[in-house]
Amino acid sequence: MNAKVESTALNRPVTRQTFDEVLVPTYAPAAMVPVRGAGLDLWDQNGKHYLDFTSGIAVAALGHCNPIVVEALTRQANTLWHLGNGYTNEPVLRLALALTEATFADRAFFCNSGAEANEAALKLARKHAHSKFGAHKSRIISCYQSFHGRTLFTVSVGGQSKYTEGFEPLPPSIDHITYNDIESARAAIGDDVCAVIVEPLQGEGGVVPGDKAFLQELRDLCNKTGALLIFDEVQSGMGRTGELFHYMSYGITPDILTSAKALGNGFPVAAMLTTHELAATLSVGSHGTTYGGNPMAATVALTVLETINQPAFLARVKEAGAKLRATLEKVVADYPQVFSQVRGAGLLLGVVTSDAWKGRSKDIQKAAEANGMMVLIAGMDVVRMAPALIVSDEQIAEADRILRVSLDGLLQAA
Prior knowledge:
Elements: H1 2-10, H2 16-22, E1 34-38, E2 41-44, E3 49-52, H3 55-58, H4 67-77, H5 90-102, E4 107-111, H6 114-132, E5 139-143, H7 152-157, E6 174-177, H8 182-188, E7 193-198, E8 201-202, E9 208-209, H9 212-225, E10 228-232, H10 247-250, E11 256-259, E12 270-274, H11 276-279, H12 295-308, H13 311-334, E13 339-345, E14 348-353, H14 361-370, E15 373-374, E16 376-377, E17 382-385, H15 393-413
Parallel strand pairs: 3-15, 5-6, 5-7, 7-10, 10-11
Antiparallel strand pairs: 1-2, 2-3, 4-12, 8-9, 11-12, 13-14, 14-17, 16-17
Helix pairs in contact: 4-12, 5-12, 13-15, 14-15
């Protein structure tokens, strides 16, 4: 009887309207409901095909249902699922070794999301400063228009007031500077600062690349004041810009790095990476998470890491990124009334709307979707492209075609 009930529940018809009836309304998802994916191809409930240039907000870096990842997950699902943090497991040990060997870091802490990774990084920075310098060194510096997660701590650190309204009082001793503004950084970062957290490439804030001089100044100011430099690479990491992590493009090394999103290709997993010295600040019981580093997540993440962190794979990401940028720059040149510029790095690119089209990125997104292509926005003035890293030249050409058809339709309707 129970089996029959469960089977009925698993197959119960649901629609987009079901979302409005039973889910907390924290999102406003599209009208169509995707049901199946393969690579960069998606199909909705009606069988309509879409070219996915979102990869789940830079998550499915190897594409939907990648056979290599599916095989790894299936194998581990038939071996060992979960133990709890009273025990370790072989997959997480292998993943930690691989990440530390591939980066500046000596130690890894695993959790489930970018917000949790940033929470761990900020807690580590506060605790390190308290133990080494005293409680007065507790201020955290972040950038306006940054995004570091949705916990109360991380959303307060993120520099977008629209996400903190109504959740006051917010955690204290958090200040914001203007991204890429060296003088703003110099004015804010003093001896009472324990951490500076920054995205080397701002994602949600509009796909804005960090200036090397700005990031280097943050590094120098942290060295001078004893603050820790945290690079949030939740969106820019795991091969997205053509390097395993974007800090490698600049030659500027943080004290702590956070990774999530593409690390699991859609399976929830995140990492905070740091040095031996800093990791020693967090003693047994000082921080933790129930699911972090479980065998299934670790197996998937290691498979993703080993696939992406290959010279030929990363070289192809750079090649595809250059191809997509050139394609989008041609679109900007051909539609100057709609777009003004392309910015970003690798396969994380933003097309900025013109003054006449400010506030209309959502309209462009909806038009593209109607024509069979999924794109992102980054604020109301930027159309964001973050296709899977396995995107082909043919798919870039198809994206170009659909985007142009969509723009033509919008212009004709204007």
